[in-house]
Structures are given as structure tokens and as C-alpha cells.
């Protein structure tokens, strides 16, 4: 059974649009469930293009993908290891992992003492000794605006940005494939000019961008509505060997309940861990926000008290005083579950999510430990690539490398 809210998330439309679609005959009417609530049955939704993945079995064949030989990986801007761990699970072996944040580096070393963790500014790392010895370069470079006035949009024009450092690593290492993750806004940033700069720079360095699509994490065993762009590129000499496709969607969607409780995603309930707390008055107000609700669900006098001057401003501000819902994927996690504009309150308890609950929603395994202060741990986790998403995209990279290896052997 699928709730209307979950169906809206799957279709990528506002929840209020479900009623309109039912009235227009574009969706069937919901059915009553045993709990007295209305849901759509899977049978009702079988003809919808947006739900066809729920009935497909491509995923089960896809996850049989495995490396045909040992493939090596260098990762930049690694954070606390979400992408690196996902790529490891896909079968890639890290030979160098770079990160500037000392706490995140300690997190990496605690969990993977065998990894070569290089702490420090990426601009100080010499990648030349790795030339021709690495299969994949990956990383989520922060997206700074590039300058365009009077420029040719080439490699040197991006100097001073962290993309330049990623491109420099690409130039020096010369891997077969690269994988770069970024916020979905990169796709439209500066009217598409930033992405075009990326495309031209990597072409200048001898690579072809084979994919620049926004990927929704909730379709890849991640109980979260996170959206990220993944840039996948291959050396021009191997371009004819590959037919890149995004990973097929998992035939199901996991929710906050799946993240925090024992079930299909985790074998046990979330282990106890530390977490932020609300001040007394904030806790009193948040206690009146219903499951899945936000500040507009409060009585008017509390809306005014809580929002202050923002009460009179436009915009939905739907992240403010937000309580998660058990039966939907979580909103995108941020660097703190209690910060004013983007609260992430537990679905039924009046408190922010704990650090371990944060990690669960990002699909880190429970034995992945985090080093640092409580606030720094929240930041590490909130900035991470969900592990299961990294795994899914990682398998597509493994398939590319397998195809390259097979075609080269055939020639």
C-alpha cells in the first residue's frame, strides 16, 4: 500500500496535487486499509509510468555486477566516507582518500585503517606519482561560481575553485573514469554555464562527460528525499567501449520507519546515541507540531511567536518547525537537525534526531563510527553522500570498467 504523501514524493509533485489528479481521473481513488486510513494499492498504481519501477526486476540483475579485476580508486573531498564506503561496497579499492577536515579524517582512519588517508588542502597534494595507476577518480567538489567575463572557459580559467583541483587531479592521474557528485543546482547554475565549463574543461583534458543527471536518493534504498547530480566521465579513447546508464531504481521506497526501526533496511532498532536537545520553550511549541507537520500546523498565536518577523513574509518555509513522518522518506538532512530554518524533529518524540539516527537515514552501517564533537558529527553526516546511493552509482562505474576491459581484450 502507498500513502498519498509517499505517492506524491514518488511522482515528484506537491502533495496537494494528488486530490486534483484524483478529481480529474488521472489517479484512482484511494482504498481503505485495515488501520482505517486510505492508501493506494499497488494494483491501482500499476499503470502509472512513475511507479513502473515498483514492478520491475532490473535491480536484482543489476546488483549482480562485480569487478572483473581489481579496480583502484582515488577520492577527493571525502568527508566522513559516505561515497567512498559506497564505492567500496561496489567493489572499488581505495588507494588514496583526501579530506581537509581533521575530524572527518579521524573518522575515516577509525573505520578504515588500511585506507591511505591524506589530510590537508587538496591543492597541496601531488598526484603525479599515481599517473596511469588509478582506474577511478571520485569526489564531491564544492561548487563555487566561475568567472566568465572575457574568458575561454578552459582549464586555467577555473583556477582558484575547488573544481580546478579536481580537474588537476584528473590531468595528473589520468584515470579511465571519473565520478563527481554535487548539489542538484549545479545543473542550472548560472543558466547552465557552470556545467558547460565543466564539460569543456574535461574535454580539454581528454575526457567525455557521459552523464550529468540529477539522481533522487529515495529510489536507491535511501530513506531520504535527497537529490544530487552525478557527473560521470570516461577517457575519450574508451568512449566507444561504454554505454553508460544510470542505475535502475530499487523496486520499493524506504521511509523513516525503515531507517529507525528493525526491518528490511536494518536488522535492529537504532542504537542509542547522543543528540541535540531543544530549549524548554521550543520543546513546548514543537510538541504541538503533528507528525509530518511544520509551523503552519501550529495555532496562529504560536505561529506568530515562533516565526516572529518571518510570519509576515512570503514563501512556505516548509523546513521550519518540521517534524518528520514515519511513513515517508526523511527530508534532506542538513548540518544540524535543530537549526532554525531546517529542523528535523523525530516523528513521535519531541527532540531532534540523534547522531545515529542521522547516520541511519544516510544509510551508514551501525558499526561506522564518527569522530569529533556532537555538532561536528552532525555536520559530517549531513554533508555525506548516502552510502547506498554511492553503492548504486558505484556499480555503474564498475560496469563501465568491465566493459572497457572486455572490449580491449577483444581487440
Strand order of the largest sheet: 5-4-3-6-7-9-8
Full CATH superfamily name of the largest domain: Vaccinia Virus protein VP39
CATH class of the largest domain: Alpha Beta
Number of helical segments with 4 or more residues: 14
Overall average residue pLDDT:
92
Number of strands: 9
What is the general shape?
Answer: globular
What is the string of SSEs from the N terminus onward?
Answer: HHEEHHEHEHEEHEHEEHHHHHH
Q: What Rg is obtained from the alpha carbons, in whole angstroms?
A: 23 Å
Structural class: alpha/beta
Spans of at least 5 consecutive residues with low confidence = none
Number of domains: 3
Can you give the helix content as a percent range?
A: 25-40%
- Distance from N terminus to C terminus (CA atoms, Å) equals 51 Å
> Approximately how much beta-strand content do the residues carry?
5-15%
CATH-derived architecture of the largest domain:
3-Layer(aba) Sandwich
Sheet with most strands: 7 strands, mixed
Amino acid at each position: 500500500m502507498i500513502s498519498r504523501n509517499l505517492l506524491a514524493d514518488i511522482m515528484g509533485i506537491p502533495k496537494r496535487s494528488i486530490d486534483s489528479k484524483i478529481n480529474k481521473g488521472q489517479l484512482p481513488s484511494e482504498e481503505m486499509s485495515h488501520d482505517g486510513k486510505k492508501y493506494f494499492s499497488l494494483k491501482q498504481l500499476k499503470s502509472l509510468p512513475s511507479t513502473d519501477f515498483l514492478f520491475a526486476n532490473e535491480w536484482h540483475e543489476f546488483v549482480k555486477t562485480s569487478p572483473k579485476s581489481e579496480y583502484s580508486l582515488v577520492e577527493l573531498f571525502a568527508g566522513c566516507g559516505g561515497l567512498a564506503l559506497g564505492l567500496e561496497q561496489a567493489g572499488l579499492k581505495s588507494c588514496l582518500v583526501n579530506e581537509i577536515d581533521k575530524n572527518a579524517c579521524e573518522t575515516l582512519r577509525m573505520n578504515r585503517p588500511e585506507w591511505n588517508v591524506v589530510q590537508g588542502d587538496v591543492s597541496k597534494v601531488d598526484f603525479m606519482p599515481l599517473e596511469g595507476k588509478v582506474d577511478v577518480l571520485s569526489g564531491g567538489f564544492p561548487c563555487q561560481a566561475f568567472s566568465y567575463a572575457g574568458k575561454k572557459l578552459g582549464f586555467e580559467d577555473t583556477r582558484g575553485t575547488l573544481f580546478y583541483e579536481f580537474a588537476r587531479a584528473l590531468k595528473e592521474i589520468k584515470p579511465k573514469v571519473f565520478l563527481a557528485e554535487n548539489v542538484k543546482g549545479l545543473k542550472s547554475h548560472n543558466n547552465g554555464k557552470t556545467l558547460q565549463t565543466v564539460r569543456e574543461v574535461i574535454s580539454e583534458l581528454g575526457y567525455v562527460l557521459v552523464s550529468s543527471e540529477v539522481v533522487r536518493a529515495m529510489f536507491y534504498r535511501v530513506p531520504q528525499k535527497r537529490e544530487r547530480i552525478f557527473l560521470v566521465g570516461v577517457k575519450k579513447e574508451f568512449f566507444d567501449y561504454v554505454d553508460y546508464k544510470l542505475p535502475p531504481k530499487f523496486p520499493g521506497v524506504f521511509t523513516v520507519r525503515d531507517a529507525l526501526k528493525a526491518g528490511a533496511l536494518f536488522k535492529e532498532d537504532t542504537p542509542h546515541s547522543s543528540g541535540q536537545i531543544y530549549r524548554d520553550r521550543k520543546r513546548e511549541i514543537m510538541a504541538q507540531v503533528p507528525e509530518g507537520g511544520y509551523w503552519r500546523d501550529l495555532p496562529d498565536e504560536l505561529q506568530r511567536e515562533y516565526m516572529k518577523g518571518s510570519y509576515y513574509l512570503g514563501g512556505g518555509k516548509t523546513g521550519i518547525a518540521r517534524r518528520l513522518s514515519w511513513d515517508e522518506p526523511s527530508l534532506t538532512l542538513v548540518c544540524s537537525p535543530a537549526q532554525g530554518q531546517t529542523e528535523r524533529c523525530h516523528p513521535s518524540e519531541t527532540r531532534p534526531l540523534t547522531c545515529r539516527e542521522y547516520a541511519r537515514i544516510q544509510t551508514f552501517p551501525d558499526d561506522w563510527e564518527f569522530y569529533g564533537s556532537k555538532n561536528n558529527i552532525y555536520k559530517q553526516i549531513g554533508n555525506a553522500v548516502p552510502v547506498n546511493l554511492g553503492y548504486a552509482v558505484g556499480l555503474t562505474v564498475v560496469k563501465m570498467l568491465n566493459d572497457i576491459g572486455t572490449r580491449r581484450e577483444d581487440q
